[in-house]
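Now for one specimen:
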Amino acid sequence: MQEFNPFSTIKDLSGLLASKKISSVELTTEYLNRIKKYDKKLNSFITVSAETALAQAKAADEQLAKNQKTSDSDFSLLGIPVAQKDIFCTKDIKTSCGSKMLDNFYSPYDATVISKFNQAGAVMIGKTNMDEFAMGSSNETSFYGPVSNPWDLDAVPGGSSGGSSACVAAGLVPAATATDTGGSIRQPAAFCGLTGIKPTYGLVSRFGMIAFASSLDQGGVIARTAQDSALILETMAGFDPNDSTSLNQAVPKYSQLLNHDNNITKNISQMRIGVPKEFFDKNLDSKIANVTHEALKNLEKQGATLVDISLPNCHLAIPVYYVVAPAECSSNLSRYDGVRFGFRCDNPRDLEDLYKRSRAQGFGKEVRRRIMIGTYVLSAGFYDAYYIKAQKLRKVISDDCTKAFNEQQIDLIAGPTTPNTAFKKGEKSNDPISMYLNDLYTSSANLAGLPSMSIPSGFVDGLPVGLQLTGNYLSESTLLYVGHQYQLNSDWHTKTPKNFAEV
């Protein structure tokens, strides 16, 4: 077996598997050993599925023995360990969504995303920790405790996909799935120095992905590089008849469209990249602004044209999001009533007591807060004043983005992913408004259904910073191409936290 490097990319690991320098069982065992050694510090996994993972790895080795890979075009995820966010249903393996409400829930079926990974021969190494029902920006609301950031164990990794970002950043797994409702892929990717992409709404099936806000939720990936993200996204994406919001679109081979000669994506020197003036206001840390400008210069040196643009209503994204998302969450979470599945209180006096105590005891503080907000804005007296108005403003925000792409003829919108670096655990726990503002630059893409990604762009005071790229509908190929070209001309994505370097 070749010497194991836990921070290898999926592309490199696949090459080792194909050349028989390492087996999938050996690779999986190495990562399981790292989880056992390091995850006590991070708390990034809720469930480690070692037995299942080793069985899948053994099957992958048998398949690898039959199929000799000869070129990059034959690349697949066969034999590659991947972690799954604990929001995706996995047959006979606990799916908790980070909540006491589902602490005893074992799904009778696999989510479509999980089925696609199984068909690709990937190895599911475990289920990652997350904010409860994906509600949070710090991964502190999980029933299983907060997750730590590998770059600073006293800091948060971002949320809600904090477990996914922490385990990848620490080299416990090469990549992990994640979900994004208002920034929950891109924000933790930025906080942990990783690449994270939220695709166009409907590109990845939501069947078997436990719902938070159905018109906003979208599955995606957190990995080291744009190249690895492309490989995983082309596996996850695709039409699903079980999901009524699934797009019936052919999925490009994103991994084959990353270079200048792909004949589909524009050359970066032909691209116009819009930079919204609203993203560089008083809310943005000045040091992050400097790092972001340097990252934009990198793209400019490669020939891209930077264009000053305005998104005049983007400041409304947070208030609009925090009306729409809680409204949908209050509806989606009404099914957890203590009757059919999930947590049930002890010795209920009657049906009403069963409902009240099961929900009060099964849901955490942040989930209860959002249910109450959502129920309020959907109530008869306030529906028009809040929910309908928020939906109208959502269209205004979406139209701003469409106008920028069409009238300014830009290919991408670029700016900071977050207004600050990872903050200390507990720092914002009692200030929900301050916590919500971490999604200041990310939530517009969800409201509009646009694809968006974060790539590592530097450091501020020893903590990672992300550059956010947002594209027009179904422009994932362009996003991944530009991200890949940026990473060919920078090394921020190769940086790893020193406390986890030892094999």
About this structure: The chain has a mean pLDDT of 95.
